[in-house]
Amino acid sequence: LVAAMTLENATTYWSTSLVLERTGADASIATATTAGLLGGMTVVRFLGMTLTRRFGADRVLAASFVLAIAGWAVLWTAPTPGVAVAGLVVAGLGYGAQYPLTIALLLGIAREGADRAQAVATFVAGATVGIAPFLLGAAADAVGTHTAFVAIPVMAVLGAVGVLLGARNARAHGLL
Q1: Are 39 and 86 in contact (CB under 8 A)?
Q2: Cα–Cα dist 76/148, whole Å
Q3: CB 79 within 8 A of CB 23
Q4: CA–CA gap between residue 116 and residue 10 (Å, rounded)
Q5: How does pLDDT run across 55-91, given as a tens digit for each residue?
Q6: What is the pLDDT of residue 11?
Q7: pLDDT tens string 93-146
Q8: 7, 108 contact by CB (below 8 A)
Q9: DSSP, residue by residue, 43-111
Q10: What is the dihedral of CA 154, 155, 156, 158, to 10 degrees?
Q11: How far apart are the C-alpha atoms of 129 and 118, rounded to whole Å?
């Protein structure tokens, strides 16, 4: 959940600065590129149920973190705003599945403790929304936005590993 919320919110807040820094786009174009992220997220949220029925929520969630890394790579290396938008769309396709599937898996595993799990998840998500963009901004002040954005794939890898280990543990205990 922390990885998913970090990716979504830090990218939403700071991708404009990255596009400005890397592509030379003017502020209005760089700001508009963020729509690519939201577009990708919207598409996958409409397709999510179909994907999870076919492949399983844990596998789709793990794959979403890998897709997020692919989108990040395109964005991070983008020489033009158009390429940056493409990277943000791909990243959005990954990000869009993460929060809903994380919550669904959490509540499914929690069973009788679902109310408590939801309360903790809500607190964690809110704290991450407030902290992650600030930390990425502080890192960007210290080393530049481009270098600070390396935190994004690191969080995605941690998210994917967390999903895989959590799913394995849940299966071992008959929860998934």
Answers
A1: no
A2: 11
A3: yes
A4: 27
A5: 999 999 999 999 999 999 999 999 999 999 999 999 9
A6: 97
A7: 999 999 999 999 999 999 999 999 999 999 999 999 999 999 999 999 999 999
A8: no
A9: HHHHHHHHHHHHH-HHHHHHHHHHHHHHHHHHHHT-SSHHHHHHHHHHHHHHHHHHHHHHHHHHHHHHG
A10: 90
A11: 16
Residue 9, amino acid? N
pTM for the full predicted model: 0.94
Residue appearing with tokens 């990255």 = 18
> How many angstroms separate the Cα of 97 from the Cα of each of 32, 34, 56, 104, 143?
22, 17, 12, 11, 30
Buried b (16+ CB within 10 A) or exposed e, 138-175: ebbeeeebeebbebbbebbeebbebbeebbeeeeeeee
pLDDT at 99: 96
Cβ neighbours of 49 (radius 10 Å): 11
pLDDT bucket at 165, cuts 50 / 70 / 90: very high
Which residues lie below 8 Å from residue 160, measured CB to CB, with a gap of 6+?
62, 65, 66
